[in-house]
Automatic annotation (TrEMBL):
Belongs to the RNase T2 family. This is RNT2B Ribonuclease. GO terms for cellular component: extracellular region. PANTHER family: RIBONUCLEASE T2 (PTHR11240:SF22). It comes from Nothoprocta ornata. InterPro entries: RNase_T2-like, RNase_T2-like_sf. Transmembrane segments: none annotated. GO terms for molecular function: ribonuclease T2 activity; RNA binding.
Length: 138
C-alpha cells in the first residue's frame, strides 16, 4: 500500500524539498493528519447537531466544515444502498498549497466519479440527500 501511494502521489510531491523522500512524505502526511484532526472536528459537529446516528444534511455539514477550517473541502460519497435513503461519506479531501497551507479544493466541472470502494463508487455528494458519516469504522 505504501509503495502504491508513493508511486502514485509521493513522486509528484517529491519536487518539493520537504517531501523529497518516502520518509519525509509519509512523515509530513501524518503531521498534517494530526493538524487537521478531522475526526475530532466531526465529533464536535455531531454533538452540536440534534440528529442521531451521525446523519447530517450535506449543505449543513459543508458549511460547518468550511467554517471550522476556513476553506472548502472536497467531499465524496457512496450512493444510498438499495432500500436506504442516506448516502455515506466515503472520502473528505483537504487541499494544500506547495507551502503546505490549507487552500480551497476546486473540482473540475464534469468530474463525477473517482475512487472505487468495494462495490460502490465514490462520487460528488448529493446536497439533497441525508448523509451518514461512520464515526466508528471497523
Amino acid at each position: 500500500y505504501r509503495k502504491h501511494e508513493w508511486d502514485k502521489h509521493g513522486t509528484c510531491a517529491a519536487t518539493l524539498q520537504i517531501l523529497n523522500s518516502q520518509k519525509k512524505y509519509f512523515g509530513k502526511a501524518l503531521d498534517l493528519y494530526k493538524q487537521v484532526d478531522l475526526n475530532r472536528c466531526l465529533l464536535l459537529l455531531h454533538s452540536s447537531f440534534t440528529r442521531a446516528l451521525c446523519v447530517f444534511q450535506m449543505t449543513v455539514l459543508k458549511e460547518a466544515l468550511t467554517r471550522a477550517y476556513g476553506v472548502t473541502l472536497k467531499i465524496q460519497c457512496l450512493p444510498p444502498e438499495e432500500g436506504e435513503e442516506a448516502q455515506t461519506i466515503g472520502q473528505i479531501e483537504f487541499c494544500f498549497t506547495k507551502n503546505l497551507e490549507l487552500r480551497n479544493c476546486t473540482e473540475p466541472k464534469g468530474m463525477q466519479t473517482g475512487l472505487q470502494l468495494g462495490t460502490g463508487e465514490l462520487s460528488v455528494c448529493n446536497d439533497t440527500l441525508p448523509t451518514y458519516y461512520p464515526l466508528q469504522v471497523q
